[in-house]
UniProtKB/TrEMBL annotation:
Coiled coil: none annotated. This is Acyl-CoA dehydrogenase/oxidase N-terminal domain-containing protein. InterPro entries: AcylCoA_DH/ox_N_sf, AcylCoA_DH/oxidase_NM_dom_sf. Gene3D superfamilies: Acyl-CoA dehydrogenase/oxidase, N-terminal domain.
Length: 96
């Protein structure tokens, strides 16, 4: 299902908190040993295919076009997220 920019923002805003000035995020795993935050963040995004939107729906994606996936990525950057460094390799190197 193809969504426009506003629909993507609205859908993601329903599941993720907006970045605030007090948000302090770690980078590349530095500063936090909290793996549970990453797991929870991934689970939240995976439930509706937001984490890997170009993947087929039957494999947990959204069947998104590259353009839509790019907009999803930009939109996700507007919201709080967990440091996914411990999980990044698997997300980048495996898939259908």
């Amino acid at each position: 299902v193809s969504l426009n920019d506003e629909e993507i923002y609205e859908a993601i805003s329903e599941i993720l908190p907006k970045l605030g000035a007090e948000t302090s995020s770690t980078v590349l795993g530095a500063g936090s040993d909290d793996l549970e935050a990453g797991r929870n963040y991934l689970q939240t995004l995976v439930e509706e295919g937001w984490m890997l939107p170009t993947w087929p729906q039957k494999y947990g994606g959204r069947n998104s076009t590259p353009e839509e996936a790019s907009q999803i990525s930009r939109t996700l950057g507007l919201f709080e997220g967990a440091d996914l460094y411990p999980y990044g390799v698997g997300l980048s190197l495996v898939g259908p």
